[in-house]
Write a structure and sequence with these properties.
Blueprint lengths: L1 H15 L34 H13 L2 E8 L2 E7 L9 E2 L5 H14 L8 H5 L15 H5 L24 H4 L1 H10 L3 H10 L8 E5 L6 E6 L1 H12 L3 E2 L2 E2 L4 H6 L16 E2 L4 E2 L10 E2 L11 E5 L3 E6 L4 E7 L15 H12 L10
Antiparallel strand pairs: 1-2, 1-13, 3-5, 4-5, 6-7, 8-11, 9-10, 11-12, 12-13
Helix pairs in contact: 1-2, 2-11, 3-7, 3-8
Organism: Pseudogemmatithrix spongiicola
Pfam families: Beta-lactamase (PF00144)
GO molecular function, one term: hydrolase activity
Length: 363
Amino acid sequence: MRRWSRLLALAAAAACSNDTPTAATPGPAWHFPSSDASWATVRPVEAGFDSTALAAALDWAGEQNSSAVVVAWRGRIVAERYWNGWTSQTRGPYFSAGKTITAALTLDLVSDGALALSDAVSTHLGAGWSRAGTAEDSITVRHLLAMASGTDDSLRRIVAPSANRFYYNNPAYYQMFGVAAAAGSATFPQLVQQRILTPIGMSRTLLIANEDTGEPGFVFVGSARDFARFGILTLNHGRWNGAQLVADSALLARARQPSGTDNLSYGWLWWLNGGASHRTPGSYLLPTNAGPMFPAAPVDLAAALGLDDKKLYVVPSLDLVVVRLGDRAPISGAVSPAAVSSFDNAFWTRLMLARPGTGAGLR
């Protein structure tokens, strides 16, 4: 009851605020920050936000174990908040939210002709990569991007035909590091540094070797601002300050469309809002859930989601990028969420209260 009372109070505050925008605000061209020191800012009202309600949304995020939240509109920082001793330079793990960076690199290699989505994974990793015998021959790069390899976590057993069943399989995803390295004739860290991180100024982002899945791979560790840069690149379809840096625009946009019929809310390593149904990480036997993942959020929102509520949200219709880093939010429960959590919809309920007049046609 207290929660709903607070939301109603926020709505009332938004309605009464002196700087509440009354219509969609026309704005400037996109800003592409050359450095953190040169990152432009914009007042909330100029970006279509009510400042009181937006501050309340960030206050709530801070109560939910957040260490960093960045809200950027057309590349300009609208709001930025840090807790727990963090600053704009503090690094934290992106965990599975970093999968989206891997997707961008993979599609850049596809754009260059170094590999094809239809390539069998064994073309690049050799026979025996999955330990599932000849059944692995039908598993392609596209299947790994869609979380539809058909293998179980051990990579030894085929539990569903490739492409027919969504299963959030981290050991299978970890094969993407080797595929990219083989196709790009360099190590994965070298490729992602040269093609993505350095060109867009993600200078605080590192790759840390990780074998938590039982397979060799990497975890991206970086600042909230760095992750916001990647969100800006994404909303500009791989363009940065006029230059097409990553893949071709149509291919990169395709990553944020449904990758199969079994999960209408998953693209190529991106989570998608607005689908008629959605599936979440867990057993193959988990039921499909009706409706979108985040009912309070815009239907065109796409999300990079990681363990313990690591979040990057991009919203094309609002030219909006939102990053949240920190520890698991209390609202998400006692079990650490692998991706989708209760934090998402609760946060977006509050963010949309700060966007008066933008709900129609977006939810």
